[in-house]
Design goal:
about 425 residues; alpha/beta; Rossmann fold; Dihydrodipicolinate Reductase, domain 2; 2 domains; 10-stranded mixed sheet; 6-stranded parallel sheet; 13 helices; globular; disordered N terminus
Length: about 425
């Protein structure tokens, strides 16, 4: 244990030293001026991670909930000693003099508009996942970033997990032989908020919160933090949480995007409370290896509940189970011993934010662990799987034209209509 701790600390120190050599001296000594758009739960998680990493000052915060705005400004002032400017309109934040980068922690239906506006200002961006609400928004965001030439990192922080890095190492070393199938799952029983239609809190501008998406009657179950299982805002468990597993599978296996998708599921146990499937099976046919996702938001989940959250790599010579902090290798054959490895990454979020900040200060996109083009592929993968579910049909993706082929109904879901007053990018 002591030896492992020493190796991990030495590796971190060495990585930090090497990174420092790549950053111009003037940039190392200056604090990066950042703004936060969307100051709720996860917006503050990533911003506090940046302050913990160091070398930044939050000079502006934007939120359409006045309580979120005040609370976040209070917290940031206590952490950094200076109070950020407070705005309700994100356009006002983007006009702040001296702003260099923005953190986007808003709800998914706002990501594209916030992101593209920041690109047009030439700002560097850390944006939470999923990249966008729909595929065409994601494509527009990629184009905007390419045009701006800015530094962009998307919040797939599991790319910093040492356990998943070890899984990639074992697979490439042929520990389990050629992988022919991959399974991924996150089973859990969500704690759901009140589903009764009611007036929104006085502090919340619900009209603006809904933004370009359909405006639904307010109830807490689709509001702050709880929107993830609502079709119009979060688009369900696979898109919200499962996307992390799909992204890390792509990284481990060096996958691009699947060529086809077949998804089925149901909404029975939680019907009347959520609007996305509480039971789902999605087959995503990557080249040479299908990935099969499943979730149950009820019951016990997996027969072995310790495996409720993780990825199974099925190889010719064995099976590898991988999760954030643990690996289990099961070799083929009789009387084979399972091998378990506990590999912790306690500051996964901080490391991902630090990776972004290093790239910004060095003005070097090649340092990034999750470029926007990669994030688009992971996001579009889960969006297309859900398009298969909603249309109850096979969805085929043409990588060259970046569109759905031979399925007009599914193709309609590539870009949902915006509400009056909003224009699609």
């Amino acid at each position: 244990m002591k030896r492992r701790s020493f190796i991990q600390k030495s590796s971190i120190a060495t990585a930090g030293l090497l990174t420092a050599f790549n950053i111009p001296a003037f940039a190392q000594n200056q604090k990066l001026k950042i703004g936060l758009i969307g100051a709720g739960w996860y917006g503050m998680v990533i911003t506090e991670a940046a302050l913990k990493v160091g070398g930044v000052e939050v000079i502006a915060v934007c939120d359409i909930d006045t309580e979120h705005l005040k609370d976040s400004a209070d917290k940031l002032e206590s952490l950094q000693g200076s109070r950020p400017k407070e705005f309700k309109d994100y356009n006002d934040l983007l006009d702040v003099k001296g702003l260099q980068a923005v953190f986007i922690g808003s709800v998914p239906q706002w990501h594209a508009l916030h992101f593209i506006a920041a690109c047009e200002k030439g700002l560097d961006i850390y944006c939470e996942k999923p990249l966008a609400y729909d595929v065409e928004e994601g494509k527009a965001m990629v184009l905007a970033a390419q045009k701006a030439g800015n530094i962009v990192q998307i919040g797939f922080q599991r790319r910093q997990s040492k356990a998943f890095a070890k899984a990639k190492e074992l697979i490439e070393a042929d520990k389990i032989g050629k992988v022919h199938q991959i399974g991924a799952q996150i089973h859990y029983n969500p704690v759901l908020a009140d589903a009764t239609i009611q007036y929104p809190p006085a502090s919340l501008d619900w009209e603006t919160w809904c933004g370009p998406a359909t405006k639904l009657d307010y109830r807490p179950i689709i509001g702050h933090k709880a929107w993830r299982l609502e079709k119009e805002y979060g688009n369900g468990h696979l898109v919200d949480w499962g996307i992390h597993h799909i992204d890390i599978i792509r990284k481990i296996m060096d996958f691009n995007m699947p060529t086809s998708f077949v998804t089925n599921g149901s909404l029975n146990i939680l019907n009347g409370k959520i609007t996305t499937p509480d039971t789902l099976n999605a087959t995503m046919n990557f080249e040479g290896c299908p990935v099969i996702w499943q979730h149950r938001l009820w019951g016990t989940g997996d027969f072995n509940q310790q495996l409720n959250n993780g990825i199974f790599f099925y190889g010719e010579n064995g099976t590898l189970f991988a999760s954030d902090n643990k690996l289990i290798v099961t070799p083929n054959g009789k009387n084979q011993q399972q091998e378990e490895m506990e590999i912790q990454t306690p500051e996964m979020q901080e490391n991902h934010v630090a990776n972004f900040l290093d790239a910004v200060k060095a003005k070097n996109k090649n340092l990034l662990d999750c470029k926007i083009e990669d994030a688009f592929q992971s996001t579009a993968t889960v969006q297309l799987a859900m398009a298969s579910y909603y249309t109850n049909s096979k969805v085929e993706w043409d990588a060259k034209s970046q569109t759905i082929i031979n399925n007009k109904e599914a193709a309609k879901l590539l870009a949902r209509p915006y509400r009056n007053g909003y224009k699609r990018p």
